[in-house]
Amino acid sequence: MRKRVTIKRKKDSSRRLAFVFLLIFVIVVLVSLRVLNINLFSRGNESVKIYFYEEDSKELVWERHTIPKFSHIEEKIKRICLEIVRGPKNSNLSRVVDPNTKIIGVETKEDIAIVSFSEEIKNRILPGISGEAASLYCIVNSVVANTPLRRVQILINDKPDNFYWDSVSISEPLNMLTSSLPQGRKAIIYFFDKNTTFPILYESEIPEPEDRIRWARIVFDKLKSGPSGIYKDYLIPTVPKIANLKDIRIEGDVLTLDFTSDILSYTGFGSASENAFMYSIILSMTEIPGINKVLFLVEGEVQDTIGGNFDTSKPLTRWYFDLNPPPEGMIGYPVYYVYK
Prior knowledge:
Blueprint: H1 2-35, E1 45-54, E2 59-68, H2 73-86, E3 103-109, E4 112-117, H3 128-145, E5 151-156, E6 174-175, E7 184-193, E8 199-207, H4 212-225, E9 235-236, E10 245-251, E11 254-259, H5 271-285, E12 293-298, E13 301-302, E14 316-317, E15 321-323, E16 333-334, E17 336-338
């Protein structure tokens, strides 16, 4: 009787040991698949076109990458974006995004791929407008070229943003780029110093606008986004996030900015901040060729005032200023001082 019990215990012990070894083996296999980025449930592999930037030709160039086949298009898009983050295989092609960038999530809606990246995607690694557009459209073209979707919406940390890095708009879904990369032009934009005392000239590069309406829209979006990079330590944004434009029109030398009613509910205007809001817009917009006056409307109607301190019942012109040399070593500089 004791012998039978002993044999049974040995069998149970052997089974438990075998189960432990099997469990360890399965864990090792799964971890290995994870480390090697192998999808156990993929349906084989497929070849995709991944776009990168070629410095010599200043063009987007695709190369073939092999990725697993996925049953869901969102997983495929995420893997395509991961290939872009990892960089090109061809040494003649340039990396287009910060390698620390994470793909937070992917959704699809109608013909749009909505891709959310971590904040690192905004780290500039290519120069100029063309470099910024190259990075952005490598993502857009790679997604559109390999899926039935036609447009791509870029989010940053699951939130919409006005600009990809600091000049090319991502406020709307983007189509595949089939023409040459856009070239940039200089635009003069005015922020204010930290004390909202002096207007500060900020020279920025923007995509070449097709017309003055588009130019005004880009300038407004840049004012709303505020200064970028190290300039954040010296300059302040002057347009509140709640300020949204319903329409932009040009008649003669007058630029009309028609705001939504949200601006009237903004409670952050004091005399200094409203001064900065009004004149950063007026100064920046009148740098556009042919624009000498700015008219402020709300929901298509003339307002006596927007924040309670400025008369906005008629088109406003630039102040009269005295040109001053920039203080030595100052980043961004006060060009104009006000004579009242």
